[in-house]
Amino acid sequence: MNVCFTGLNEPIIVGPDAVSVLEVQNRVLFCRLCSSLVSERGSEAEEPYTFWSDDGEEIKPEGRILFVLSPLSLPWTDKALSNGLSAKLERLVNEDEDARQGVEYAFACLKSRLSEVALSLESEYAFEIDWELKRYLRTYGFGVELIENEPLLDKLIKFLALAKDVSLSKVLLFVNLKLFLSENELRKFYEQAFFSGLSVLLIENVRDGVYYEQERKYVIDQDLLESW
Quick one: which of 18, 31, 116, 145 is 20 to 30 A from 201 by CA? Predict the structure, then answer.
């Protein structure tokens, strides 16, 4: 996908072959670009922009990006991820006959036992809604296991792995991620993003003179001069 800002000379190419980095050293422009993307208003945003497919088709901006405004607050429960995970697990269970029968039997036992207990009550009771795996997963908060005091890099790698598991089609956009990672950690993050086949875009405000493998970098300096 190409991100084309009206005020920039070149499009920002975003794809699974490399992590794209837009380094905007001018803070005013950095803020305007970030707020414009978050608004999802496209050509009507403060800094107008458009999305284009690799085939040259214009793409509507709504719902094309999953925003990570701070790596300290990763959007684990974003609908694209949580719904995707439930659908993926349900599909895996349905493809495994033993697993499907085992899960259905376990719920039948639970339903039967609760019905037996309810017989001691005065009125008559029954389940109104048939059992559904996706509903069960949502109710009991099935998701990525997070460990207290787990290093940030480990959480980021789990987050990328989750996006890979659900075949996320959105662009993952991180704001100032480099502030939180060492050079070695950033390399590992890039490797995981590349391995996962995800489209990742970093928007950074701090100058970084290092050029990494698996990084596609675009720089706008303090004087709004562009280099690629």
Answer: 145
